[in-house]
Amino acid sequence: MSEAELAFLDAQWDIFAHDHQRPPELAPNGAPWLTWLMIGGRGAGKTRAGAEWIRCQALGLPPFATQAVARIALVGETEHDVREVMIEGVSGLLAVHPPDERPIWLPSRKRLEWRNGAVAQAFSAEDPESLRGPQFSCAWSDEMAKWRYAEAAFDMLQFGLRLGPQPRQLITTTPRPTALLKRLICDPASVTTRAPTRANALNLAPTFLQGVMARYAGTRLGRQELDGEIIEDRPDALWSRAALEQCRVGEAPQLRRIVVAVDPPASSGKRANCCGIVAAGICDAGIVYVLADDSVAAATPALWANKAIALWRRLEADALVVEVNQGGDMVRAVIGEVDPAVPVTPVRAHRGKWLRAEPVATLYEQGRVKHAGCFAALEDEMCDFATSGLSSGRSPDRLDALVWAVSSLALGPKGGGPRVRGL
């Protein structure tokens, strides 16, 4: 292909856009959407998608626009962010236009001007009042979850979105659990697309992806900044995200005892609870290290038994600590069918889940429990568990298994015995 043909092909955003960079056609209510939330990790292509969407709106390029709009708002966290990222950045508005379509950037007036008469004005979210007065047909807001005056700036922008038959806005952001972002996600006139950093791997330096994934994958920061998840704490929960990050270590030392704790579901099939399977060990200093979470959802008895025994073998554990409240004889029989040589320590719950979990949470506060790795699903349950249980109403099966494992190691006789029947 000639250079001209390659340049033409490169300008066809519709060919190269990822699914998360394409706006859905309709909102959940079946009507055309008014707000498009693009939530993603660092480097997921949010800026490129925002710039391309604005280009399509300004020039009326299908399939992302049906006609050109006259007035556009560009809102960033600061004036510096609007200029350096949204306009002049490597994936910004000036970069995504072919030379013959590129708008003129007037920094002193904070505006972009296209040859067809379309104009985009740049605004800082630190100055919400600057949005009072102008009016727009569409808007692009970047990193809204970081805005210091998010509510005020967003409100002022909504009053200005009043031109044309259907004013729309795109919000590109790495998520944070802000009230505004959560409210917009639930808005029936909003659509949301999500993507982790790895979705855009072909456009990222391999060393960057390998480095950040190795260091942050599974951590609270990684799940937010790389996976694009909204991670939040429950105020009345026994554990917090910050506390769990403090107890995280790269690997466990030499352990004198290892157990695999199992919290079997009362039933099997698609509607069954998860079978909690968590391994932990204790060192000579009396510190417990959580080693693995191999919990499995909707499992048959044979499946969860095989899963638990496989973990027991892999870690060369001393015993399976198994809750037997739900059919003790059946639990022993299922495990015996897989491997009758596995030592099973039965435990029975005599108190509620909160009362059993509270002394384990105290051990965490005392620095006597560490996480040798990242266990995202387990930590989600820990940070969502309060006196009323999980906010979803589901059973905290991973947490139950964790409690049995830690209790059997640290709350038994001499900080390592298996007798936890009184819990």
Walk me through the structure.
The N and C termini lie far apart (about 75 Å). The chain is an alpha/beta fold and about 425 residues long. Helices cover about 35% and strands about 20% of the residues. It is elongated. It has 2 domains: about 5-205, P-loop containing nucleotide triphosphate hydrolases (Rossmann fold, 3-Layer(aba) Sandwich); about 240-415, Nucleotidyltransferase, domain 5 (2-Layer Sandwich), CATH 3.30.420.280. The strands form 3 sheets. An 8-stranded mixed beta sheet has the order 3-4-5-2-6-7-1-8, with helices on both faces. A 7-stranded mixed beta sheet has the order 9-15-12-11-10-13-14, with helices on both faces. A two-stranded antiparallel sheet has the order 16-17. Helix 13 crosses helix 15 (about 395-410).
Helix content: 25-40%
List the total number of helices.
15
Biggest sheet architecture = 8 strands, mixed
Q: Average pLDDT across residues? A: 90
Q: Measured on Cα atoms, how large is the radius of gyration?
A: 27 Å
Quaternary organisation of the protein chains: single chain
DSSP summary, beta strand count: 17
Return the CATH class of the largest domain. Answer: Alpha Beta
The gross shape turns out to be elongated
Main structural class: alpha/beta
| Spans where pLDDT lies below 50 across 5 or more residues | 414-423
